Amino acid sequence: MFFERAEGGEQAVLVHVDFFSQQDREDVDEFIDLATSAGVTIRHLLRGSRNAPNPKSFIGSGKLEELQAVVQAEEANVVLFNHTLSPSQQRNLEAQLECRVIDRTGLILDIFAQRARTHEGQLQVELAQLQYVSTRLVRGWTHLERQKGGIGLRGPGETQLETDRRLIRDRIKSIQRRLDKVKKQRDQGRRSRNRAEVPTVAIVGYTNAGKSTLFNHITDADVYAADQLFATLDPTLRRIELPGIGPVVLADTVGFIRHLPHRLVDAFKATLEETVEADLLVHVVDSAAEERLDNIDQVNEVLREIGADEKPQLMVYNKIDLLGNVEPKIDTDADGVAQRVWVSARQGSGIGQLLDALASRLATGVWRGQVSLPPNFGQLRAQLFALHAIETESWDEQGNQLLDVCISAADIRRLEKQMVFDWQALVV
Predict the structure, then answer these.
(1) Is residue 311 annotated as involved in ligand binding?
(2) What CATH code would you report for 11-115?
(3) 18 is in an annotated binding site
(4) Binding site annotation covers 230?
(5) Which superfamily does CATH assign the domain made up of 198-363 to?
């Protein structure tokens, strides 16, 4: 990793400001969860309210003096803001407080740096970090500034600040080239799935909604799952079999959060493309969270940003074990189409209903009926059995095989192409 994290045991003071504008408001409880996930020790939470941020120091002079006193009293070595700071605001605060100041974006980046486990994930995080820090380089090397002309007054030619910027630009280009290779590999795998016409289902949702626990139950995988924000950072793909549908690719993706930094969205576009290209989105919601409706809106906002807002969604209300007397169930619309499934991923209840709902939502391209196979169509019969498409089998008086079949339209087209026949000519 390009940037090394500071050693653990950091003593932090948290700053949260309530603005009258709903658009600028952040959730203080979520902020505390973010700080805890970053591994700091919270010494104090300083709250305030303003109409608008102070251009120089974000908070007012009186609140800044109060913050300075708290930092000194608590012997804190880092101050975390639950807001996005401009580079100048961050520098002014650090100069006044004489300790590190990190805004909400920097805090989320730090958590991402801790969670990234794959090489691709680490590259994406480093790219976001570099793009973030490139705007916040300070002139800490003034002794190397370029001097005016004249004997004995000529400088080294390039200031340390310019050197840092050039190194960062070169590193960003290098990472982007490597991520482009990863993107090509992903595109190749996606094209292969498209050729085989295997449907893809992407699990999306607010961070810590229980997506990975649900993913593990469905696929028998061992994806890391924990009760913390951004436990999952790296996408995981698994192949499952759905009755009447056949093979389906299930993708577990990074959790979303309110006001997700745009540079993170940009850096993780290769990962988020699994969501954009999916045939169906499984939107997991923490049903026990008081702010669940707001969280749903925030997820849909991110989906709009990445161009996936038009994708069909199946809502999954997770953690019903925390609600009391709610049983696993499927809610359907007036046409009988599954819209919501109530489950508890931790207890494993409702998984069967979820799989049924997935099969029904993906069954729009499924053909069900009876076909008659002449005796010389044994190879097609074997292929249908291999696809688990035959429900019942009988014979007529002419020795033709009568098969009750449930098969996807994609498999029909593939068989017609491989074996050169007309499916409709076999339909009874």
Answers:
(1) no
(2) 3.40.50.11060
(3) no
(4) yes
(5) P-loop containing nucleotide triphosphate hydrolases (3.40.50.300)
